[in-house]
Amino acid sequence: MPRIKSAKKRVDVAERNRQRNVAAKSAIRTAMKKALNSTDATAREEGLKTAYSLIDKAVLKGILHKNTAARYKSQVATAVQKSA
Length: 84
Hints:
Blueprint: H1 5-37, H2 41-60, H3 66-83
Helix pairs in contact: 1-2, 2-3
C-alpha cells in the first residue's frame, strides 16, 4: 500500500476508473448481444443503434480505442445482417 497521500489518491482514482471502464464494456457487450438475439427486425435495428451509440461514447471517453470500436461495430453489423 502506498504511504504518500498523492499515491493513495492515485490508487483510489485508478480503481474508480477501472470500475467505470468495466461497466461501460459490459454495457457494450450486452447491447451487442441484444441486437444479435432480437427476433423482430425493428428490434434488431434499435439494438444496433443502441450498440453503436454506446461504442461511440466509449471511444470519446477513452475507454475503447477507435480501431477496437470499428471492429466491434463491423462485427455486430455483419452478424445482424446474417441473422436477418
